[in-house]
Design brief:
homodimer; elongated
Chain lengths: 361, 361
């Protein structure tokens, strides 16, 4: 491919002129030519094949895979196996009217468990909705649980969303998501490396995950069990230099164990997020998307000096007491008490009863 | 105090020979002498006054306060105010039969919101119980909510627990915790810097919090609202070089907002914990208390090679297919398929139907 380009590579493979090592990798497939059938099938379902020469090819995001591949060790023993290797896709089958490069330009992946809880689905839908409202594309895998909730949240905000599949784009998997996939294709895109008709084989999900990580500016993990696929996707994102963002959950929930493990892994450097604003702070342009700080309730006590607070604490609820008694309880000088009382009275925190000072209620 | 010792300092204060600056700090209290009354009141409730000269004085943990005080800036403008200054206690009023230094030697603080949720109380009680079972002392503030749940968890494990109060040790505050405080004093200790009879003034909680942080090997925050006292205690622990450990919760819970803020604060370096084992890994002796890694379910697929996994994925569920078909779907050579099939069959993952290979179910 790198030496002679895709067309010549196929010609050489088919005519038996490819190097032995390459022929072994392609294996039994070398005699099959389904190209025309694939293209016909794509046309029938309204899909197209996007190649690196196309304008809409997402060259910039996918360059992270080329870089990661270049960092693989030279000796075969240390290299990632074929399923996990950071190989850039040769082409992408795309279904939907939007332009692929535009959709992924400002995009975030939301991934998580298929066996999600109501909590996780709520959070994923909320994140999907808020990211969609702010003009960001939610990318996920179209699976049950967290994936579907994230897609639906984005659709509810009438925002485009992108499903990266481990099977052909004409093949609703899971089958129960047929209607969801139609809505995604109407508003956003269905994307796959495999031609229409391909089955969702297990290892393809692992291959697919690197694409979700590469296409997006960061990956949010909403719920993940211990040793789960969502954890794997998060680590792929880290390998590609993308921020890994993790939503925590109850420590009593098995579906948050994987999330908490990711957050405890110091080497991973995952960031805890609780809102879309915090997600955008991590993936957005610097300065553009700062999350507002979480604010607690404000109180009239805010801004009082240390002495004023101590005097206020010393004031009784019912019977008023004289300043020297306040000074004794507050542990300060009577002059200090007399100095801070006017401010406390102005703030309606204390009142004069005629015989002494007490709290104003 | 530092120059002439506590006895001479009091004599000079009472006789008006103390420096003006010191007299101003002591203020209206200088004329009161409640020492004998305090000691009598302590004796009546079974409490004692522990001073630095006593064997049970926890000199080592409290030394962190002396160190922190030494790091305060020299100019008064930059110094912590009196409520927040890291001043070591002069003496401690202690109620209970246990030795103070022994109880705090292996201790962990568990702090959190008074207005806790059932989730937070469950986690605090569970942590208190498990830490107690492993011979660690749970230190908390005796308040409603998380504090009480942590104390009760430790008591349920028949482990000593230590309540550090912001009022006199003879004064049950909150009043509804009278029975709890009796159980704590029977099994562990009630500790206060203020003499018996003192009221739980608001600023005393802030003063008290530094003591909870100093006495323990680390502070666990279980539930905390935004801008809460538990957050403040966590920051005091960090100031003293003690690990800050934080239990996450649902991002939909207002009572976990403070916890998540602590975990998002990179400067704080708080560690997310989900179990007593993880708490002990952070505060225990190195190598002694490593938490076991969280394990997911193991599967017969574990340990299979990349090619074996792809061949396994290529096997159909019902009708068996020949090896060359498996090779075409798996994207490998027929020889590879023939090489891995015996291992897959031995692991009961695939079976021969007489005409081809399929998944063994």
């Amino acid at each position: 491919m790198e030496d002679v380009g895709p067309v010549e590579a196929v010609v050489r493979l088919r005519s038996g002129r490819a190097p032995e090592r390459v022929r072994a990798l392609v294996g039994a497939r070398v005699d099959q030519d389904a190209s025309l059938a694939d293209l016909g099938r794509a046309e029938r379902c309204g899909a197209r094949l996007v190649v690196p020469e196309d304008d809409e090819w997402p060259a910039l995001p996918l360059h992270a895979l080329t870089l990661a591949l270049g960092e693989e060790p030279t000796e075969p023993a240390g290299q990632s196996d074929r399923t996990r290797a950071p190989v850039p896709p040769l082409a992408l089958w795309v279904r939907g009217t939007a332009r692929l490069d535009e959709l992924v330009d400002r995009s975030v992946a939301i991934v998580g468990s298929r066996a999600s809880t109501a909590y996780g689905e709520h959070v994923a839908a909320e994140l999907g909705h808020q990211l969609g409202e702010r003009g960001w594309t939610v990318v996920s895998g179209g699976a049950f649980g967290i994936d579907a909730a994230a897609h639906r949240g984005a659709l509810a905000a009438e925002a485009p969303t992108l499903a990266v599949l481990a099977c052909g784009v004409d093949r609703p998997y899971p089958a129960a998501h047929g209607a969801l996939f139609h809505r995604i294709a109407d508003n956003g895109l269905m994307v796959s490396e495999w031609p229409p008709g391909c089955a969702p084989l297990r290892h393809r999900f692992l291959v697919r995950n690197r694409l979700i990580a590469a296409l997006t500016r960061g990956t949010v993990v909403v719920e993940a069990a211990a040793r789960s696929g969502a954890q794997a996707t998060a680590r792929r994102a880290q390998d590609l230099g993308r921020p890994v963002l993790v939503v925590p959950g109850p420590v009593t929930s098995a579906l948050s164990v994987g999330c908490h493990e990711l957050l405890r892994d110091e080497d991973l450097g995952a960031v805890l997020v609780t809102s879309a604003a915090q997600v955008l702070e991590a993936v957005g342009r610097i300065g553009d998307d700062l999350a507002p700080p979480v604010e607690g309730p404000s109180s009239p006590r805010d801004g009082l000096s240390d002495v004023a607070l101590r005097v206020l604490d010393a004031c009784p609820v019912r019977t008023g007491v004289p300043p020297d008694r306040l000074a004794a309880v507050a542990g300060c000088d009577v002059l200090d008490v007399l100095r801070v009382l006017p401010a406390l009275e102005l703030a309606d925190l204390v009142e004069w009863t005629g015989t002494g000072w007490r709290l104003a209620l």
